[in-house]
Every structure is written in structure tokens, then in C-alpha cells.
Amino acid sequence: MRAKKGRVKKKKTAIMADAIAEELVRLLRGISVSLTLKLSHFISLVSRYKNASSAGAAVGLAIALFCTWRYWWRMPRKRRGGSSSNRSLNHMEKRGGGGGEDEEEEDSSSSSSLEDPTRSTTMDPNTGVAAGGSSSSTAIAHSITQAVKRSSNTTTDSSTGSMITDSHVVPSVAKLVKQKLKGGRKMTCQLLGVILEQSSAEELQKHAAAAAVAVRPQVVEVVLEIARACDLYLIARVLDDESEESVLAALDSVGFFTVPGSNRNKVLFCSTEVGTSSFVRQLEPDWHVDNVRETNAALAPFVRHQLHIAPLGASQPIASNVFLADSLEHFFGFPATTSSAAHT
To answer: What DSSP designation does 319 have?
Structure first.
């Protein structure tokens, strides 16, 4: 009897399964037929009234529907269905009794942090750590910035090994020279009275006989840096060949010819001021440095920038493109105390 009842039960189950399958097949066929009819109706409608506006409207509608669907599925879970967390909390309260209150507080704190990720925070100025639950990346960036600022303003004492804070960092000679040149790539410079200690051709001839021609020690570093930064030509008024050789020897003694691009061919000699102006106009430099007012005035229309070397207050302005300074090193930012110390 039991076996017979079991076979009857299995037979009834199979009949029910077949009936359900037939119903599903019939339902799917009905849906397919309905979609086919609607699609054919839509296509016939579009083909009947097809134009640019109707096609554009259909495409726009399809895009809008697709974007809406994507946006809805990408929304945070709490915004899509806010009751899920409440259901889970209620379930936990039923299971754990009083423990549900702690879980609720924990869930509320986490949900509040998710709801407001851009919440403003405050920074502790002493420690550089963000307070009020802000991201740790802000605190790390702040501490790194402070460390870089502190390291840039400190130097090490070579004798004691201690760190010395320097609130005013002096720019390097190269930086000062580049700033003053203002992008100039070629310079001509008078030697007498600007670079050499001798200020006239007669004085140069006298010291050449005694092998006492010398470069001003205060200007050596600036001249070498100018030679590295641009194409530098030096001009001197001389009266004899011995003066020329003395000038070249003086320049060689300070290492001028060791600078890449500097050689003896860039040291030019003439006997008159007209020769100096002729050299400058042929070379077409961006800068010319001289201590003869007439030469600077004559070259003002032809040279972009000039520097006239004269004692302070002893010379009046020459032209708008002619700068005034009492020495070459002072024009490039070297203070008078530095120059006097080097001279002694």
C-alpha cells in the first residue's frame, strides 16, 4: 500500500510539473508575440513618419532610459532602499536582545560617515594631525610640507654638526646673473676700470712693463659666471703688444679661459673709443658694459641693454636702456661689504 501511494504521489507531481511547464511556455509565447507586435507597430510607425526629428527623439528616449537605469543601479544601497538596514537591526534585536542597541549605534555612525564624505574638518596647528574624523591623507600632506619647509631653512654647521636655522637664504651667483641678464645671450664688456684694476690705456702700459696687470678680485666670480651664462666678449684699449700679453696673462691667472666657450679670440683690443664702438656694433650683443659715458651714449640706439659703470652720484642718466652702477659686481647683487672684504 505504501509503495502504491508513493507511485501515485510521484505521478501527480509529474503531472503538476508538466502542467506548470506548459503554462510557462504558453506565457513566454504570449510575451514574445506581444513584444513582436509592439515592435512591428513601432517600426511601422517610425517608417511612416520617419524624419530627422522623430529618429532623434527615439534615440534620445532610449539613451535617457538607459542612463536612468544605470544611475538607479549605481545609487548607494541606503538611498535605494533605506529599510534594509532597519530590517537587519530589528532582526538582530530579536536574536540578541539588548545587544541590538550597540549594533544600532555602530551602524548609525558608519552610515553617517558614508552619507557625508566631504564633511569639513579642522587641523591641529601644533601636531599637524586632522581632527574630527578627517582623512589621514590631508594630515600626511601637511606634515610633509612642514618638513620640507624646515629642511630648506636649515643648514649644518661643519664644525659642530648642529643644525642652524637660516630665515634668509641668499641666492646663488648663477641665479643672480641669470636674473640680471634678462634672457640675454651675448655680452660685450670693457676691461679697463671694470674688470681690470687699471682704468686707462696709459696706466695699463705702465703696469704691463712691471708685470703688474691684475684682475679686480671682487669681480672674478661674477665674470666667470657671466661667461658660463652667455657668450662673453672682452674689449680693452691698449697702446702696445706688451699690454695685450699682460691682459691675457691676467685673465688666464683667474681661470677665465677654463670656462667652456671662452678663449683668447674673445678678448679684443683696440686703440680708441671708436674702435670699441665698432667692435660692439659688429658683434650685436644683448648687453654692453662700459665706464666711458660717450661710448654708452653712442651705442644706446643699437644695443638692447647697457650698463654704465661710474661712482654713485657722479653720472646722470644716459638713456632708458642704460643702467647705472658703481661696479659690475654690485649690479649683479653683490653687497659692498662682500666686495670690500674680498679686496682686503
So the answer is: -
Query: Any idea which residue has 676700470 for its cell?
Result: 193
Backbone angles phi and psi of 319, in degrees to 5 = -155, 170
For residue 146, the surrounding DSSP H or E stretch is helix 136-152
For residues 41 and 19, what is the distance between their CA atoms, to the nearest angstrom?
Answer: 33
The per-residue pLDDT for range 62-100, each reduced to its tens digit, is 888 888 877 777 665 544 444 444 554 454 545 544 444
CATH 3.30.10.10 describes domain 175-343: no
Q: What is the dihedral of CA 149, 151, 157, 162, to 10 degrees?
A: 110
Residue that has been written with the C-alpha cell 643672480 in this structure: 176
Bridge partners of 164, per DSSP, are: 155
Q: Give the DSSP H or E segment for 289.
A: strand 287-290
Instruction: Classify residue 225 by burial, with Cβ atoms within 10 Å: 0-12, 13-18, 19+.
Output: buried
CB 332 within 8 A of CB 176: yes
Torsion of CA 150, 153, 156, 157, to 10 degrees: -130
Whole-prediction pTM value?
0.50
C-beta separation of 54 from 43 below 8 A: no
Q: Is-contact 192 283, C-beta < 8 A?
A: no
CA distance 207 to 167: 46
- Label the pairing between strands 163-165 and 154-156: antiparallel
Orientation of helix 2-48 relative to helix 52-74, angle to 10°: 140
CB atoms within 10 A of CB 249: 13
Set of cell numbers at residue 70: 544605470
Provide the angle, in degrees to the nearest 10, between the axes of the packed helices 100-115 and 83-96. 160
